[in-house]
Amino acid sequence: MNDVKCECGHVNPHGTVLCEACGKELMIGTITDQLIDMRYEGSARRSQTYNKTIIDKIWNFFSSVKVGVWLIIITLVASSLGTILPQEMYIDLPADVYYEQEYGWFGKLYYQLGFNNLYGSWWYLILIAMIGISLVICSLDRVVPLYKALKAQRVTRHEGFLKRQRVFGVNDVVSESDLTVIKKQLKERHYHIREENGDVLAEKGRFSRWGPYVNHVGLIIFLFGGMLRFIPGMYVNEDLWVREGETAIVPETDGQFYLHNNKFILEHYDKNKDKTFEKAINKAGEVVKNYQSNVVLYKRVGQNLPGEKPNLKKIKDYKVRVNLPLQYEGYSVFQASFRNELNKMSFALTNKQTNISNGELTIDLRDPQMKYDLGKGYSVEILNYFPDFEFAKNGEPTTKSRIPNNPAFVFRMVTPDKPKGETSFVAIKQTIEPFGDNRYKMTFKGIETTNVSGFIVRKDSTLWAIILGGIIFMIGVIQGAYWNHRRIWIQNKNGQVWIAAHTNKNWYGLKREIEGVLADTKLSVPIDQAQIEENEKGGV
Amino acid sequence: MAAISSNLLFISFILYLVATLFFGGSIKDKKTGNEKEGTNRWGKIAVLLTIVGFISQLGYFITRWIAAGHAPVSNMFEFTTFFGMALVGAFIVIYFIYRTTLLGLFTMPVAILVIAYASMFPKDITPLIPALQSYWLHIHVTTAAIGEAILAISFAAGLIYLVKAIDQTKSSKQTFWLEMVMFALVAVLGFVAVSSIFSGMGYHEKFNWIDKHKNEAVVEYTMPAISGPHEGDLLTKGGFSPLFEVPAFINAKKLNTVIWSLMAGLVIYGLIRLILRKRIAAALKPIVKNIKLDFVDEISYRSVLIGFPVFTLGALIFAMIWAQMAWSRFWGWDPKEVWALITWLFYAAFLHLRLSKGWHGEKSAWLAVIGFVIIMFNLVAVNLVIAGLHSYAGS
Ligand code: HEM
User: Fold this and answer.
1) What is the mean pLDDT of residues B368-392?
2) Predicted ipTM of the assembly
3) Region B332-348: what's the mean pLDDT?
4) Is there a contact between A277 and B212 if contact means CB atoms under 8 Å apart?
5) How confident is the model at residue A69 (pLDDT cuts 50, 70, 90)?
6) Is the CB of B254 under 6 A from ligand 1?
7) Is the model's pLDDT at B109 over the cut of 50?
8) CA atoms lying within 13 Å on the CB side of residue A279
9) Cβ contact (<8 Å) for A474 and B130?
């Protein structure tokens, strides 16, 4: 496009408001206020220059801070809605039942609006995505022109530029010695000083101008990391239950890793030992001190042949505790929960009349045998087994799951006096004899339980992006928040010395600093023209 | 150790109270309170008392840490007390940047209220459940509290701005809302007053009631029941019978506390108005007459600038590191987390409006007030109301 040449000789890109080098107003009539708008140095931003094609319009939409702030506010309000009732992942009933049952019509409405899974809803993701797009576009729109303008700036500035700075003052006579004092004072305050034909530009903290862009880049990387999770394989999140004494394949590791659970440990605080906590424990009842699983991690060596026992090599012993996951090759195993499971059940085969036992049997509930031989012609067969028994709708016995929560058996009891056997259905606290009166029965003797540790196996290959994004974001905010960009111009115009100053934030601090710089000189302190404007408007 | 600890806390509380009086004196004394002249005698004493109080409270913190074996930031009492301490610390830092005692006069009462509020919760030293046994948790909680405290300074400065800038000669939306802020502060005082009075009396009454799953339960009130539990049956002889009953899904006991606090707040507020014969904000106006508006405006903004990165680090980044360790995921959309995110988004919006839309002065002061309301909401309501729905800390 048509570049614009300023009378100072600098060539500016199309759309520039203030000459990058001398600050002269290039677009006559754009500046109506008494003070000039110094944001982005009046540089040529794409969003302010073009507005014809669809692409221009989209670009301008997303580069607007107004739009950005609205997006942030809408996200904020939407997020708060999701905290009114618990989200779906925190409830333990089906969502279509839970909300109405617990919260009546309001709960039902909440569920119908889809707020039960608000943070995973398409519209919430779109909001986040729009913030992401806005971050990219608004930053690109500004950072490049700003960088160019700050790089091209010259020491000597146009009169109009100086006059219409917010902090501005004129001195008629200035001695050389005063100028030396000022320069020394500025240097002490870490200003970088440039001089050109007796004009001075003192500048510091320019790098803080990049802070917002650095932090936006950090946010973009963070959001990108969040998106990576949708790629298969980047994110593994599996539950794994392992009983004490057993070994299980670690899921999603191609059968490479095996985890053996030696022991699960649950400890409570003891108010006699932990005296400090006595009162609190008395109030709360039992307080858990530790959940721990002592495990061994194995790796398979060689090929896995179906049907054959894998060849395992021990990698390490570890005590998995809450907050102390087992970590290996990018996988982490977290202690997530535990349960106590029925393991074995014992019965005695008894004669109903005499109550004499003719031998006992112990059934391994996860691996019951077909037949238990008790000797002397007594034996018991298991005709059917329901680990998690219930009656189905049609009245037939079935099992809900393969976990022995509520075991039930159909036994055939073979005895010398009933060689064909008697059939008996035995479940916890109930016995049914389908073919009439039996002579023998299975007397319940006892149970054994084992602990089952619940682990979460996690591999998160997106963490690097999250961490990197977080670090860059922090660097960026600190850069932008703990420093600011200040410039002071001291220039000869019309035989006078003009002082003008600009900062991107904290004007009060800048004014105090100038007062300090000028304290030992005869120069008068420049005034804050914005303050005067406000006072004239009848403000306070 | 635990006894030394509570004594130190008590001492610091008294010192803060006295310091507030001196801050008041430093303003009344002639025409100072402005930046340039430097701090007068009263002001110097006030700052000294504040610092000594702060050190004493630091002593409380350290001794309690030793007694408990973990950093004392793991229940409502400990966390809120720490927040109060951070508020005082943040004020001391900002004071040494801007040297205005007026800020102390507005910050210290807030800190005192926060600490008083904290001490209404059970003060027992609690053991840590496994999920909380992580030094990342302690780093997270303390940094977040410090960040929030610095952000709260912007509220105090914003309040000064509003008291000075808002025209009190006629009533308007602004005077109404500013007075609401004042009333909210008084209502906290009301809560502290009724809680102390009834616990001093040892008040107790028990109810049988039916919860939302239609089970019978027992609830013990420590204040006379204005709002009774669902199908409540008073068990205590001579107990106060409720004026009305609430449905089962509302926590009647907490609602009752809120009602009492608001009533006490109204009474105290009424008395203050009776004495002052004008709005509280109007009565405060002479105190702020010497301060420059752009000066407090900058303090307010600067506090947000300093506090925002600290808050991000503490409330989001460290929180994510801890959550990753304890629950295997760095983010779980738990209400407490979401409200930290909301707070963060809000202050991000604040900074954008200020830097790019030129929202300074009064608009910026209102935003600082709203920000503080959000922080307090997260501290109070999310802990006591929302998080009550599912246990936050239970793993
Ligand atoms: C959650 C999201 C965001 C965060 C946390 C964030 C953070 C920040 C911070 C901390 C600053 C510096 C402010 C100051 O120093 O006072 C800033 C500046 C800025 N942000 Fe954002 N931002 C976010 C989203 C956006 C979006 C969506 C836009 C798009 C319009 C945007 C546009 C800007 C602009 C234009 C600046 C000013 C740059 C300058 O004038 O030098 N930001 N942002």
Assistant:
1) 74
2) 0.90
3) 93
4) no
5) very high
6) no
7) yes
8) 8
9) no
> What is the average pLDDT across A25-34?
66
**pLDDT tens for residues A231-270?**
888 888 888 989 888 888 888 888 888 999 998 988 888 8
Residue range A74-102: mean pLDDT, rounded: 87
B2 close contact with A: CB closer than 8 A: yes
Closest CA to B159 of B224, B100, B102: B102
| Partner-chain contact B320 A280, CB within 8 Å | no
- Judging contacts by C-beta atoms under 8 Å, the chain B residues touching residue A84 are 386
Per-residue pLDDT, averaged over B270-279, amounts to: 92
pLDDT at B389 over 50: no
Amino acid identity for residue B221 in this structure: Y
> Bigger pLDDT: A85 or A131?
A131
Q: Each residue of B1-52: pLDDT tens digit?
A: 778 888 999 999 999 999 999 998 888 655 544 445 567 888 899 999 999 9
Q: Which residues of B touch A477 (CB under 8 A)?
A: 308-309, 312
Task: Report the distance separating Cα B377 and Cα B379, nearest Å.
Answer: 5
Among A323-327, A391-395, B384-388, which is the least confidently predicted range? B384-388
B355 lines ligand 1 (CB under 6 A): yes
Q: Is the pLDDT of residue B393 over 70?
A: no
The 10 Å Cβ neighbour count of residue B95 is 22
Which phi and psi (to 5°) does residue A421 adopt?
Answer: 95, 155
| Cβ B356 under 6 angstroms from ligand 1 | yes
Please name the member of A86, A287, A463 whose beta carbon is closest to the beta carbon of B129. Answer: A287
Of B55, B48, B178, B187, residue with least CA distance to B113: B187
Lateral strand order in the sheet of A418-427:
A371-375, A378-386, A408-415, A418-427, A430-432
For an interface test with B, which of A76, A124, A278, A327 has the most B Cβ atoms less than 10 Å from its Cβ?
A: A76
Q: What is the DSSP string of A258-283?
A: EEEEEEEEEEE--TTT-GGGHHHHHH
* DSSP result, A338-377: EEEEEEEEEEEEEETTT--EEEEEEEETTS--SEEEEETT
Triad B364, B365, B367: Cα angle to 5° = 65
**CA dist., res. B203 & res. B192, Å (int):** 15
> Any idea which residue has 């303090």 for tokens?
B299
**pLDDT in the model for residue A49:** 80
What is the C-alpha separation between A422 and A414, in angstroms, rounded? 7
Is the torsion defined by CA of B135, B136, B142, B146 positive or negative?
positive
CB within 8 Å: B349 and A473: no
Name the residue with the closest Cα to ligand 1, atom 8.
A212
Instruction: List CB contacts of A355: < 8 A, sequence separation 6 or more.
Output: none
Backbone angles phi, psi at B132, to 5 degrees: -90, -5
Q: Which residues does A194 contact at the CB level (< 8 Å), separation at least 6? A: A155, A200, A201, A202, A203
* DSSP-assigned beta bridge partners for residue A438: none
Q: Which residue has the tokens 């899921």?
A: A251
Characterize the bridge pairing of strands A288-301 and A408-415.
unpaired
At position A452, the amino acid (one-letter code) is V
Q: Is A71 in the pocket of ligand 1 (CB under 6 A)?
A: yes
Say if the Cβ atoms of A280 and B302 lie within 8 Å: no
- CA–CA min distance A479, chain B (Å): 10
Global pTM reads: 0.88
- pLDDT at residue B83 tops 90: yes
Maximum CA extent, chain B: 68
Q: Does the pLDDT value for residue A207 go beyond 50?
A: yes
Please tell me if the CB atom of residue A68 comes closer than 6 angstroms to any atom of ligand 1: yes
- Asked if residue B20 lies in contact with residue B108, where contact means CB atoms within 8 angstroms, the answer is yes
